[in-house]
Specification:
Layout (H helix, E strand, L loop, with lengths): L1 H13 L11 H12 L3 H11 L13 H10 L3 H14 L36 E5 L2 E5 L2 H10 L3 E2 L2 E2 L12 H4 L5 H7 L13
Antiparallel strand pairs: 1-2, 3-4
Helix pairs in contact: 1-2, 3-5
The structure holds zinc ion (ZN).
Length: 201
């Protein structure tokens, strides 16, 4: 992770942009690494998207003993935090015997979605909540909160920004599909093949 963030992303992509006058937030690069490595961001993201597999067009395979050992070896302490959940993911792998894992009791707290980056607010201590444009919104981090509240506005630091992006509309999946039947959602997403089977099950 260190090499990917500092060498690939930071040194070969971000830093050269300084020559063109862009301001690079160096401290944020440090925090990006901190979130991924120390705050378990990658493990939280994997668990979240594995939870929602029926509405993805892909599904992470259940883990083998070898996988469990690999994760514990690479990330000591991983099994204590995530092992039990992935054991449940294995147990609930058989269609027809149980509901998809998102609808079974496996001690998982479904997270709020980040209004800006659309990944959920998975690191609890980093989550920001703010009433913006008359609506309560959640953000995964101070940076994402800043993007929506300060940067993507009609004016930034006193200058009008007519070409700036706007984070509006039905942004979160959870709002868009609220109270709808899962089968209808999967059909609408186009995940049913001509033979009536879904793409992954
Ligand atoms: Zn975010």
């Amino acid at each position: 992770w260190h090499r990917w963030i500092y060498d690939d992303y930071y040194r070969s992509y971000l830093v050269p942009l300084e020559k063109y006058g862009l301001k690079i937030p160096h401290d944020l690069v440090e925090e990006a690494w901190n979130r991924i490595y120390n705050k378990d961001y990658v493990h939280e993201v994997a668990q979240f998207f594995a939870t929602g597999w029926p509405v993805n067009y892909w599904r992470i395979d259940p883990m083998t003993d070898e996988d469990f050992e690999w994760f514990e070896f690479k990330y000591p302490g991983w099994y204590n935090k995530y092992g039990k959940w992935w054991e449940n993911y294995n147990r609930l792998r058989y269609p027809g015997k149980n509901k998809p894992i998102a609808f079974e009791d496996v001690d998982y707290q479904y997270p709020h979605r980040c209004w800006t980056c659309m990944v959920p607010a998975l690191i609890r201590e980093d989550m920001v909540t703010e009433k913006v444009d008359g609506q309560w919104r959640t953000y995964c981090s101070e940076t994402c909160a800043w993007t929506d509240i300060k940067a993507f506005r009609p004016e930034y630091e006193g200058r009008p920004t007519p070409n700036m992006g706007r984070l509006t509309g039905h942004r979160e999946w959870e709002t868009l599909h609220h109270n709808r039947d899962l089968a209808d959602i999967i059909k609408d997403l186009g995940y049913v093949r001509d033979d009536g089977k879904t793409l992954i099950a």
